[in-house]
Amino acid sequence: MELAWIALGVFILLAYTLEAITGFGSIVIALSLGALLLPIELLLPILVPLNICMTGYLSWQYRKLIDRRLLLGMILPGMAVGTLIGYALLPVIDAQLAKRALGVLILLFAGRELWRLRNTSLSVTRPLWQSRVITVAAGICHGLFASGGPLLVHALAGNTLDKSRFRATLVCVWFSLNSLLTLAFILDGRLFPTLPQALLYAPLLPLGIWLGEYLHRRVNEQYFRIAIYSLLLITGCLLLIPR
Question: So what's the pLDDT on residue 17?
């Protein structure tokens, strides 16, 4: 068990570095890798508060780059509704079923991202209503696993934001929704028992932000993302293996 907590620290550093680069992916990566060793219901109250610390800092730092029209007009309304639905479904979902559902989500996400990286010339256009439906579905995934990023990025495919504005807008989304989830964890009593672990991992956040900022400015993120998504494909398969 002690090795599992050490490994989780490595996963958190890796995941939060990626989020500092791209604006999403921290919880979905840390949760999918961590779920190989620890229960999902134990991981969420640790990862979500850590995320609001990081995204709160990045949201304030890059507040002038946030696309408020996209954020308030489409993303937050649909994501908030979906998050509440997903959180309400948590008590009725079996733990093993949740782990396999997460595995399927990870496989679809990683496979799609690898395909998209290989076919960068592909353009995606879809009706606004379809993007809104996918956004609500992303919110449901966020309420269940705090991992709505994959579907939200899918919903926003084809947007014209540059990578810095896209990142700033996404981290503001996660700060808002994960603040809501953290409040829910306080009310249902799940937050306080995990506070010691969350505080133990907190020093990894500035390191992840520093690494992510460095890579965001200086390194072509494509190769880093290929490695991460390939790792996620393997992880998704492992989550689907019955235990």
Answer: 87
